[in-house]
Design a protein that fits this description.
The protein is an all-alpha fold. Helix content is 71%, strand content 2%. The strands form two sheets. Strands 3-5-4 form a three-stranded antiparallel beta sheet. Helix 7 runs antiparallel to helix 8 and helix 14 runs antiparallel to helix 17. The chain starts with 6 loop residues before the first helix and ends in a 19-residue tail after the last helix. 17% of the residues are buried. Belongs to the eIF-3 subunit A family.
Length: 954
Amino acid sequence: MATFAKPENALKRAEELINVGQKQDALQALHGIITSKRYRAWQKTLERIMFKYVELCVDMRRGRFAKDGLIQYRIICQQVNISSLEEVIKHFMHLATEKAEHARSQAQALEEALDFDDLEADKRPEDLMLSYVSGEKGKDRSDRELVTPWFKLLWETYRTVLEILRNNSKLEALYAMTAHRAFQFCKQYKRTTEFRRLCEIIRNHLANHNKYRDQRDRPDLSAPESLQLYLDTRFEQLKVATELQLWQEAFRSVEDIYGLMCIVKKTPKASFLVIYYAKLTRIFWISSSHIYHAFSWLKLFTLQKSFNKNLTQKDLQLIASSVVLAALSVPPYDRSHGASHMELENQKERNLRVANLIGFIVDPRSETREVLSRSSLLSKLVLKSVMSCVTQEVRDLYHILEHEFSPLDLALKVQPLLMKISKLGGKLSSASSVPEIQLSEYIPSLEKLATLRLLQQVSRVYQVMKIETLTGMIPFFDFSVVEKISVDAVKHNFISMKVDHRKGAVLFGSQGLESEGIRAHLSVFAESLTKARSMVIPPTMKALKHGETLTSLTETVDKEHKRLLARKSIIEKRKEEQERQLLEMEREEESRRLKQQKITEEAERKRLAAKYAQRRNQRILKEIEERELEEAQQLLKEAGKRGKKKGKKPIMEGEKITKQTLMEMALNEQLKERQEMEKKLQKLAKTMDHLERAKREEASPLVEAAFQQRLVEEKAQHEHFQQLEIEQSRQRHAGDLEKKKRLSRMMKDKETFQQRVFSKREAEYKKMKKEQEDRINQIIQSRQQERETRRKMICYLKIEEERQKKLRAEEEARQREEAERRKKEEAERRAKLDEIAEKQRQRERELEEKERQRREEVLRGTPASLSPIRPTESPSSPRSSKPGLVTATAASPSPGKYVPRHLRERITGGPQSPPSPDHDRWGRQDDRPSTDRWRSTTFGGGGAPRSTWPSSRR
């Protein structure tokens, strides 16, 4: 793998490779830069490299390369510039989605192009052959060839992004957006398997997030923004699961939402809870869990009524009607009747789990089956004032099925109400979270409930009834369906009845003397008589003497109130004192009990340890004895069997015998048996030898006769097969001649077709050859242009070097003239100074002592032009005035300028110090050589290879 001094060089090299069609090499070059440890500091060039890298990965469908590169880039920019990683990931997903959509549109266009307008036209031979061979349709083949690879890449893209962002608190929004897009992908293309995997991936990410809490960049679920993003993702997962009709996955999504709420211990917004319970109602209805379905509807109704102020009265009425009908759809009997203890425990655990999901707080120590029951549900309907919001038909139906006793015409009353209810429902307003409600889906359950109520009431009144009469009373079902319903009700102890098909009658039996109907029949009868008496003879109201009673009543109430307050305070003091004494006694008793318990436990532990050791030793000894006894008995049995076979006296069980004795006896017996067997075998072998020799002597003439007879038969058979083969060859030859005569008529057509195919292929060959020649000519011209440009550049460099050399020579001559001029000026300036000094000394000698002060003032006031003048520029140092060094300095090349080898060898002197950069011919000022782009180009033809340039200029 090539190494690059700068990332920019790798990017430039990759673009060159892409232009010549070598995408794999370009991808490898960029991959080496991204995974290299030399470039761990983030810079803008790395971002451009990543953009090019993901584009190549998408074009070549290399998902693993993309994942590896993104992981390395995350390490680079995690702490420096995380927004760069976000932009790269967005670009990656955009490219994958765009490619998948393009492939899908291309497949659709291909199918539309293959759609013939002529319905009578035959199919193409290629389509017929493919259909017979593969059994696939054209659309299936085009999807498999065009669409499926890009869809796989898109799915792998989503998985890669989710895996990279799963523990990144700074890119939680991007993680949520990726999950939403993956859900929409599964929903749009009906990808149920990928949806299940996606849900499992997100679920595992959250589980690992809760398991490893010491990670540095772990998202904080206690933050409101993070919690909202996670909840949005789960609710989107729930919506897509219900739309794809993956009800099991939808229930798991509900459990995920509930688990998330339990982790953060915070209730989400009411708008989300409404969607949550709306989906729960659908899930439980599909799973035929009517009791959970009804409780979910009740919770949804409560939320809508409390928090949705924009809900219309009609929508609220439909929701309340759904709640009541869902409650009525619950079977009126307990299905756990007659169940085992294990089944009851499982039912209790399931009820606790579902109660927590629905939002009902239940005490786990109580009987949860009674809490989530039909009776408790109907009582909650009354407490929540649901019946006041329902339609009149639903209210009448509820009253008939739950409170009225009319066994003969119950079904006739219910039937018109059910017909009206089946027409109710439809789409709700936009303010409601439930888009549509259809009450007709509850009709089968309500008809079954009406049938059960009718059977229950009839069983209380009648003992025997004809089947025809009962069938006429139930207009919903045939008697076969009624019989199935009644069997289920009898099984769960709801009614007691028998069907006698021979007599055509139904027998209703009592459920025992302790049944509800018989146990309370007297109280019900008394209440009915009291109501009838009050209706016939209304009671007279007695006038109260208010004036006499109110005064004494007020005084009595005050006294009683004071007495009760005093008594209450006394009772509370006594209770406090008694509780304090009891608490002290309990503490003392508890301390004594704990001490005694420790002593008892220690003694018991020692006793159990000793007893356990003793038992273990006894058990080991007993096992050894039993094993030896079993082996001895087995040997005894074997010895007895052998003794019976040989006529020997068997060993009696009462005789005293040991294991060692039995083993010795068994070995002796085995040795004797082996010797006897060897003698028998020797005798048998000698007998077999004599028999075999006699048989072969007798069979020898018979074998010879059989051989001669077989020779005659095989000769006759060979002649017969030869004649048969000759006849078949003549017949095949005649058939081939007939076939040749028949096919000779098609020879002209065959030659015509062959000529047409040859001409077509020749034309294609000429066309391809011409295109190849044009391409080769273009390449030759381009290489000639490159060589011409290179020659011009070399010529220009030589001219430029000569010009620079001439300029340096002129500069050296100018410097020498300047040095001579400065020397002359310095000599003149020194002569003038000496003359001025001499004049000054003469003037000083003429002045007198008394004029000292005036002379000093004159001396201080001397003009500046008469003071010694120092040169502003010192002459060149002796070192710099040497011609060798000046020549070397002037001839030293500027930094970044290319100097040929033969010119560098002429330069003499010490190490060169690079002067300031100079402008090139086009006015460009740069520290790089102007010929870099020519040296980085791979010359073709007669150009010098790239390896001949200096390694520092690559």
